[in-house]
UniProtKB/TrEMBL annotation, chain A:
Official protein name in the record: Protein-methionine-sulfoxide reductase catalytic subunit MsrP
Region (Disordered): 1-22
Domain Oxidoreductase molybdopterin-binding positions: 35-181
Gene expressing this chain: msrP_6
InterPro entries given in the database record: OxRdtase_Mopterin-bd_dom, OxRdtase_Mopterin-bd_sf
PANTHER family assigned to the protein according to its UniProt record, in alphabetical order: OXIDOREDUCTASE MOLYBDOPTERIN-BINDING DOMAIN-CONTAINING PROTEIN (PTHR43032:SF4), PROTEIN-METHIONINE-SULFOXIDE REDUCTASE (PTHR43032)
Lineage per the UniProt record: Bacteria, Pseudomonadati, Pseudomonadota, Alphaproteobacteria, Hyphomicrobiales
Pfam family, one: Oxidored_molyb
Automatic annotation (TrEMBL), chain B:
Protein's UniProt name: Propane 2-monooxygenase, reductase component
Cofactors named for this entry: [2Fe-2S] cluster
Any Pfam family: FAD_binding_6
All copies of domain FAD-binding FR-type, residue ranges: 7-109
Originating gene: mimB
UniProt xrefs under PROSITE patterns: FAD_FR
Provenance organism: Methylobacterium cerastii
Length: 201, 238
């Protein structure tokens, strides 16, 4: 159904090719989150891998800094319909994290949990093989609290709500368990190229 | 599992258009979801050009479910805005657009959530809070509530006459309004302290506005002793 009189402001073709359906390009970096930034002290910060309630391995901030580093450059897509091109991130890959913990992923799913009330579910297959990192730097500088610093999950091939801010750990789960937004009607997987915004998409 | 709505795209008919401020217009839309949302939620709007090109944006619902079969959106006309430009310059009563929702259950309030309810709005960020105020006024006027509202000038403030009238007639509703460009001050620790003294300790807090406003307000409230877990935020723009 065409909307009477709507013409639209099309992006250049090069831009359109990089935009998933329903997205538009922004130059700024919008901030979306459910509540205030949590107060995080690097002296007491810990990052923990858990299987259910059982801790598997945890790192202090200094220990985390000593892990191998990974960099990624590319486009990011938010379910609120903005996309930002050519962003640069750096951190510790999920693969390197498991290697340092000397474990294989014990289940096929996990919940990423923040220092706030937030959580989000991601299949392990979408984190492994260099597809995701725990990011600590954006464009060469420590990630600001507004963007999830000191450390956030970063899974650029899924909508950005999967890249949980202020990450405190990853909890392996037997089944694919819905996180904060997924319980409120957002898609369990969230592929921007298939426009999986909400449950029925 | 929290109630999951049906997110199909649906046609909605524009039934009324009215100016709200120099930059903001109100649109009444006839839609099947008119009574099936919680105040604070938003809808996604989709426009389609003749050649199939589409643009989508999200807009907060300004109305409370009121049995009219319609919802009200308040849309700010942005410079070069692809979708807001359509609404401001082209849309007429009788036009159909597509929408889906409601979306965003975290930033929503119903009477079962109780109070005291603290609402903090900056500029057009007051729109989802207006839906909460309207709903509260209709179904639970006994729940204590306070709106802390900051706009550039009185003329830029959305629905200020209505909100002032509500604060004057609804017991338990207070308003602190500040016009930052006409002598009023920005929201600061003293404003927040005044709000908390007037209202009592809130059990629900919703903050909506531009990014710097929301960040500042959230920090001030946490510093004033409000538990971070009670605070929900929503931001417009960068």
């Amino acid at each position: 159904m065409a909307t009477r009189g709507f013409v639209g402001r099309r992006s250049p073709e090069e831009t359109q090719k990089r935009l998933p359906p329903g997205q538009h390009r922004v130059e700024d970096f919008p901030i979306l989150q459910i509540g205030p930034n949590p107060t995080i002290d690097l002296a007491t910060w810990r990052f923990t891998l858990r299987e259910g309630a059982k801790p598997l391995k945890s790192w202090s901030w200094d220990e985390f800094q000593a892990l191998p580093r990974t960099a990624w450059q590319g486009d990011i897509h938010c379910v609120t319909k903005w996309s930002k091109f050519d962003t640069g991130w750096e951190g510790v890959s999920f693969d390197d994290l498991l290697a340092d913990a000397r474990i294989a992923a014990p289940t096929d799913f996990l919940l990423a949990e923040g220092y706030d009330d937030y959580s989000t579910n991601v299949p392990v297959a979408d984190l492994a093989g260099g597809r995701a990192m725990i990011a600590t730097h954006y464009e060469g500088a420590p990630i600001e609290p507004d963007h999830g610093g000191p450390a956030r999950l970063f899974v650029p091939h899924l909508y950005l709500w999967k890249s949980a801010k202020w990450l405190k750990g990853l909890r392996f789960t037997k089944k694919d368990e819905a996180g904060f937004w997924e319980m409120r009607g957002y898609h369990m997987y969230g592929d921007p190229w298939r426009e999986q915004r909400y449950t029925s998409d | 599992m929290i109630e999951v709505p049906d997110f199909r795209w649906r046609q909605a008919l524009i039934t009324a258009i009215a100016p709200v401020t120099a930059r903001v217009k109100s649109f009444r839309l006839r839609t099947e979801i008119a009574d099936a949302y919680r105040p604070g939620q938003h809808v996604d709007v989709r426009l389609t050009a003749e050649d199939g090109y589409r643009a989508q944006r999200s807009y907060s619902i300004a109305s409370a479910p009121d049995g009219s079969g319609t919802i009200e959106l308040m849309i700010e006309g942005l410079e070069g805005g692809e979708v807001s430009g359509f609404f401001h310059e082209i849309a007429e009563v009788g036009d159909a657009i597509e929408l889906r929702g409601p979306i965003g259950g975290a930033f929503s309030w119903g009477p079962a959530d109780g109070g005291p309810l603290l609402l903090v709005g900056g500029g057009s960020g007051v729109v989802p809070l207006l839906a909460m105020l309207r709903h509260r006024g209709a179904v639970a006027p006994e729940i204590p509530a306070l709106l802390l509202y900051s706009a550039r000038t009185r003329g830029d403030a959305i629905a200020l006459d209505e909100i002032e009238a509500r604060a004057g007639t609804e017991p338990g509703l207070s308003l602190i309004f500040t016009a930052t460009r006409s002598g009023g001050r920005r929201i600061d620790a003293a404003t927040v302290a005044e709000a908390l003294t007037t209202l009592g300790h809130p059990t629900r807090v919703f903050i909506c506005g531009a990014t710097p406003f929301v960040g500042t307000a959230a920090t001030l409230l946490v510093e004033a002793g409000v538990a971070p877990g009670l605070i929900r935020t929503e931001r417009f723009g960068g």
